[in-house]
Amino acid sequence: DHILFIFDEPTTGLHFHDIAKLMHSINALIEQGNSVLIIEHNTEVIKCADWVVDLGPEGGDEGGALCFAGTPDNMVKLKDSNYTAHYLAEVL
Questions:
Q1: Cα separation of 71 and 44, whole Å?
Q2: Which backbone phi and psi does 28 adopt, to 5 degrees?
Q3: Which residues is 53 bridged to in the sheet?
């Protein structure tokens, strides 16, 4: 009875107040026993994740490699060697 929801860049074009409302709705889905997978660049969303999978290190032909997999707290420990970790450290 549980559902896997997949969201691709759900914050695109949203005001930061709307992002808070979106995160509240996503958390409600999780509290009901559902799973949520989000493809996102917004660090305000990434910092709320239970698990982060970061692909890169760049985009296109320069990307596609696994740069990190783990918790946001562990990711920021890589801030000197990982683009996402550098920007995530600013919001954690």
A1: 14
A2: -65, -40
A3: 69
